[in-house]
Amino acid sequence: MSRPIAFNHFTGASHGFGYNAAIHLSVSGFDIIGTYHSPEEEAQALVKEIEWSGAGEAMLQLDTGGRRVATLPVPSSICSGH
């Protein structure tokens, strides 16, 4: 069964409000695509929490401080609904 996907980019998912939102959405039945700037250790801690909830996840390092536009690949495990 596929799950809806939540793209958590509004504050970054690795800490604070973004972290809490990602956890809430994952236990509410959403797979999570999250972004983080740094540090990677915080992002990996979130990955473990999301996996524990049974949700799919993808954490993408993204710096939105510049004016460049980025295209980020979405892992196939998210797209396929595992």
Q: What this model shows, in words?
A:
The protein has 82 residues and is an alpha/beta fold. The chain has one domain (5-79). Helix content is 37%, strand content 18%. The protein is built from 3 helices and 3 strands; from the N terminus they run βαβαβα. The chain has helices spanning 16-27, 40-53, 76-79, and strands at residues 5-8, 31-36, 57-61. The chain has a 3-stranded parallel β-sheet with strand order 1-2-3, covered by helices on one side. Helix 1 (16-27) links the parallel strand 1 (5-8) and strand 2 (31-36). The longest helix has 14 residues, at 40-53. The N and C termini lie close together (8 Å).
Summed up:
The protein has 82 residues and is an alpha/beta fold. Helices cover 37% and strands 18% of the residues. The radius of gyration is 12 Å and the shape is globular.
**What number of domains?**
1
* Separation of the first and last Cα atoms: 8 Å
Q: What coarse outline follows from CA principal-axis ratios?
A: globular
SS content category:
alpha/beta
User: How do the strands of the widest beta sheet line up side by side?
Assistant: 1-2-3
